[in-house]
User: Fold these one by one.
Assistant:
Number 1:
Amino acid sequence: MVVLISCEEVFRALSDYVDGELDAGFRRRLERHFSECAHCTAVLDGTRNLLSLVGREDAIRVPAGFSERLRLRIERQRQSDHPLK
């Protein structure tokens, strides 16, 4: 008998699923969920597409300093969302 799995459980396990780091039983549960849930299947496909693009050297070229600007922007946003008391 296969125990049903929730979309939330799928999202938490998606990275391990894509990386092939799950035991066979849990993997089967995820695959059954994917066969029945179009939303989670779309998330899986999107994740695989993103990983494929990021893995290509020529796919994304960011301007010099972009990573640092992005880090600073995320930090500012995080601080504004959770101001220190």
Number 2:
Amino acid sequence: MILRLTSEQLRLLRNESRKTHLIEACALLFGRLNDGEAVVTRVVMMPNVLKSSIRFEANPQTVFKAFEQADRDELQFIGLFHSHPAPAQPSAVDLKYMRLWGEAVWLVLSSSDGNIAAFQMTNGELHEVALKVEAV
């Protein structure tokens, strides 16, 4: 799997992470799935209602509205983004919830060193997803 983002989308995610700094930032990623590629065309930032540095949760009504709008715009759900003040890899809590989100891609940004990486849980196994950032 390859996850494609634009440099502008990545800038938005980094900026949101800087704004929230010690609180995990989170977002939903929508776009198109084509032959092993997930192309992000929409990033929907979600306030972290937990205001936590180790967990994130979005308001269910906000999530529902984002999915409704994506459905109207014929966009597919690609995955989730979140930041945390640790390396850019899923935490033990993330791994638990990744199993509940099917094959959604999890994009993780380390707010401590700025690294970013993507992961996917497939058949109970964690796989790193290739990340391609395209200039706009």
Number 3:
Amino acid sequence: MTYFAPMPILNADFALSFARSWVESWNQHDIDAVLSHYADDFELTSPLISSIAGEPSGVLRGKTDVRAYWQQSLARIPELHFDLKEVMTGVDCLTLYYRGHGGTVAEVLWFDGAGKVKQASVCYAVNMARKDEL
């Protein structure tokens, strides 16, 4: 098992700088710039992974697999644009709350001791028109 030294409690300056850089990289569709925020062996979970990457677990590990997934995503949604709404900090994580192509998204990013994302989990808003199903 690999041990990651925890990142110190994230401060507002780091969180805002990271968030702005991350969103700018995505809005420029620059996958290399986006991936520069992540550790080489990071883990990404998203409910869209199964439909786009064909991975039924919804989990991808490592930059190579995630790059392919993100390239497929950008090919499917060439007008992809994120509008950052809120940045929330935790001990070794932050949550980016933004508006994406399909609605509201919350993305939780956990950091290693080097300030790189080691794990990311993406959650998409449930269409509240279907709230009677909840």
